[in-house]
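Researcher: Please predict.
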Amino acid sequence: MTNRELELKIKELEEIIAEKDKEIERLKRRNPNNAGRKAADDKWVASFSKFTELYESQKSIYEIMEETGISRATYYRYKRLYDDTNVSLKK
């Protein structure tokens, strides 16, 4: 290959790399619907605290879901977290 051909090939590859970098940055950004599980913020802490309070007072699953406004899946996720936390505290 001549020097000119190599320079053209390098330029072509640099353009491909730039396009791929843009695609990577696009994929790293949060999705437009802001979907997905959120971090443990104040709202989550308050929700889990309310769940813990009701669960310890032996309310039914339906009462807990109604009073906290959580789904069945969230109820079981909170229960698993509660059980895991209490098992580790008892040890």
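Model: DSSP finds four helices and no strands in the chain.
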